[in-house]
Amino acid sequence: MPESATPVTPVTFPPAFLWGAATSAYQIEGAVREDGRTPSIWDTFSHTPGKTAGGDTGDIAVDHYHRYRDDVALMKDLGLGGYRFSVSWTRVQPTGRGPAVQRGLDFYRRLVDELLAAGIKPAVTLYHWDLPQELEDAGGWPERDTAYRFAEYAQIVGEALGDRVEQWITLNEPWCAAFLGYASGVHAPGRTDPAAALRAAHHLNLAHGLGTVALRSVMPARNSVAISLNTSVVRPLSQNPADLAAAQKIDDLSGGIFHGPILHGAYPQSLLEATAPVTDWSFVQDGDLGQIRQPIDAICLNYYTPTVVSAADADSRAPRADGHGASDHSPWPAADDVAFHQPPGERTEMGWSVDPSGLHELIMRYNREAPGMPLYISENGAAYDDKPGADGSVHDPERVAYLNGHLTAVRQAIADGADVRGYYLWSLLDNFEWAYGYEKRFGAVYVDYASQQRTPKSSALWYGRAARTGTLPPLDAVE
Question: What's the CATH number where 269 sits?
Answer without folding.
Answer: 3.20.20.80
